[in-house]
Amino acid sequence: MKVLVTGGAGFIGANFVHTTVQTMPDAEVTVLDKLTYAGNKNSIAGLERVKLVQGDVADYDTVEPLVGEADVVVHFAAESHNDNSLKGPWPFIKSNIVGTFTLLEAVRKHGTRLHHISTDEVYGDLKIGEKRKFKPGDPYIPSSPYSASKASSDHLVRAWVRSFGIAATISNCSNNYGPYQHIEKFIPRTVTNLMDGIRPRIYGTGEQIRDWIHVLDHNTAVWDIINRGRIGETYLIGANGELSNLQVTKMILEEFGLDPNDFEHVNDRPGHDQRYAIDNTKLVEELGWHPHYTDFRDGLRQTIKWYRDNEAWWRAQKEEVEARYRANGQ
Ligand code: NAD
Ligand code: TDX
Hints:
Layout: E1 2-6, H1 11-23, E2 28-33, E3 50-54, H2 60-69, E4 72-75, H3 82-87, H4 90-110, E5 113-119, H5 145-164, E6 168-173, E7 176-177, H6 186-195, E8 201-203, E9 209-211, E10 213-214, H7 215-228, E11 234-237, E12 242-244, H8 245-255, E13 264-266, H9 281-287, H10 296-309, H11 311-327
Parallel strand pairs: 1-2, 1-4, 2-3, 4-5, 5-6, 6-11, 7-10, 8-13
Antiparallel strand pairs: 9-12
Helix pairs in contact: 1-7, 2-4, 4-5, 6-8, 6-10
The structure holds nicotinamide-adenine-dinucleotide and thymidine-5'-diphospho-beta-D-xylose (TDX).
Residues 6-7, 9-13, 32-36, 38-39, 56-58, 76-80, 95, 99, 117, 119, 150, 173, 175-176, 182 line the site of nicotinamide-adenine-dinucleotide (NAD).
């Protein structure tokens, strides 16, 4: 099976490539990745049956022949950080909207199976304290330029299914954690800050809730959807992992053997989404998917160990990332 993975040098895509070659001996993977600041070719270096093509998913001449050679396309490539989208939205429009459009046109030409990776953030946010969770079919009410660009890409995929009959599925997943996540994101930023003796930075009150899932559980769900999902359907991926930012910060401090209250409150994110939570009933009942990482603290401990053991992977970017946050009062 020939698998084209866009964004396969990023966090979730790289983990997906690792699992795919480990578990599917007949899989040949081509990664199409622009290698932006968020892409790292070392994340997939040395893997057998993996070829890396550096290129832009918004460039049709690059994308079209690669889609033509593939049996399935898994589309992870995107600008992914909310804070960056507030500073400069254009790369999000270009990569996430124009990029998905470009890929869809190539998929339409070749009739290739597509799975589109999206986020729960397209549904906006929920209130802290309410029981409701996001369900398939909920209205799209994105808050940030990032989530609006992902919402747009989902709309394009659905329109291409309905109007042109392409064979696509969509998944909307909650917050991922695990190895190879860029140190601009909350958990790896906090972990690498503590390694450098810097206190964790909590935006605003820290009461905001995220629904954490281990990246490897996200990716088993993606393969289940590719293998057994119904064409044209949307599946929500989540593992019932709701925790506030304060709770996560305190757990990380405890894992470092530090005082769980030794953190700082910093400037809040404009438009900060309050709570995300996924109702995964459809995925579980229809496809029989179950998460493997059900103990968050255990998964977090393994993730902290990974960052300790792989300092060479992230060190070069640390100073610049923190300088950007400092300039923002964060
Ligand atoms: P990431 O920022 O770590 O990786 C994105 C990758 O895409 C990078 O390797 C980057 O170089 C590449 N890329 C960006 N623009 C490109 C372009 N124009 N052409 C080709 N490659 C390009 O992101 P991630 O956290 O791994 O997220 C992957 C996907 O999963 C995204 O679509 C994101 O919206 C979605 N998602 C992420 C999460 C999460 O918690 N991280 C949750 C739900 C959904
Ligand atoms: O230093 C920090 N302190 C802090 O309190 C950082 C970097 C973040 N935060 C807060 C903001 C959020 O409430 O932590 C929470 C998580 O922040 P991010 O890691 O930036 O993730 P989030 O904005 O929730 O979005 C993530 O999940 C959904 C991914 O980055 C998206 O790509 C995905 O779609």
